[in-house]
Amino acid sequence: MSDLQKLAASLAGRAQSSEEVEAFVTHEKSFNVKVYSGEVESLSSAEPRGAGVRVVSGGRVGFAYTTDLGEQSLDQLVGQARDNAAHSTPDEAVALAPAWAQAPPEVTGLVDDAHARVSSDDKVSFALELERATRSLDPRIRAVEEAVYSDSDAEIGLATSTGISGLYRRTDAWCYSMAIATEGDDTEIGFEFDLARGIAALDAEAVGRAAAERALGVLGAAKIPSGRMPVVFEPYVAGQFLGVLGSALVGEAVQKGRSLLAGRLGEQIAAPGLTMVDDGRREGAPGAAPWDAEGVPTGRTEVISKGVLTSFLYDTTSARREGRGSTGNAARGSFKSAPHPSPSNLAIDSTGESRSEVLERAGRALLVEDFHGVHSGANPVTGDFSVGATGRLLEGGTPAQAVKEVTIAAPMLEILKGIEAVASDLRWLPFGGSYGGATTLVAEMTVAGS
Question: Per the confidence metrics, is the pTM higher than 0.85?
């Protein structure tokens, strides 16, 4: 048993006879470098280690955390969580996850074994190359606002007085570049990112070039006439759309009346060919793990099957409110926060077409490359979706005129019912969990332009 598991077991073992105790412990090594104008602007590395504890007693739950892992501090930690539980509102549904009948199977691909051997100099060189690749593509790239490389190597351990004990390790690396292109009086911004398990799978040249191309691609962009027309979401914005919809698929939001999908279970809410899956074990997805933040084994949940809403996503407490089991969808920001229900790896299954086939099928349409104002214009409670958009006008499926300063709008359920094709070019976005976006054709939306 590792030191981290022993620590978690020690905390869980402090439970008194009338209570349950859960310990969530992590040990992480993180690195971040930002470069600007060929020089390192900021660099940081950290090795945080800490524990979060929940105490459940009589339907009351208390939470506390610490970075001091000495014996006296651990006693105080459990005592603080116990005191917090005494002042919380009782809820009969509150409980820790039940013990495993058998250990969850491992999830492969969580660790890049070479990650630990990559030097800080190599990471800085990567960030400098990222900026150089962005800036050098075209003289109209006036500046690179940010070029960033970050990574993490983390061990996550959990133990409960109900009998759960587990540990897994994961590595993550990611980078992004933000290019500024100028031509005459027109200035545009282009953003691109990539993520992987280790730096070796990231391509600084490709990310930098894509960021520059996005900025250059909207130089000279203009509004188009208002009207109803087909709309194609690029993978990045399709993932953003799912990021909004994902919160409406959480069982707790439904129970609290904070979801446009409340009362719709079993209804046809999307196009008949559309299937949407949340899969906490999906290989290659950023949110993959053998078990969730409560220790429940992860798995595959079809939330929409052939257009029909078939399930919501639950943690232990929200599931118990409905007399059912958790779907393995508890999440945490870190050891400093208690678990909450959230999608893990949410994506729409491809309908089988390639990207080029989807664009050709769209004909004359608006290809949306970026959303603006998603937080204010998209509402998972009411289903309203009205956001600013930048992109290209497709003519015969071929990108033509650059477009900006338009608004696209349609109720979210209308968008789901209007999805005609989803390409096979899936990419993952790490938005509080992860969301998989692919080139997606929506039959018709309102486009407000000139």
Answer: yes
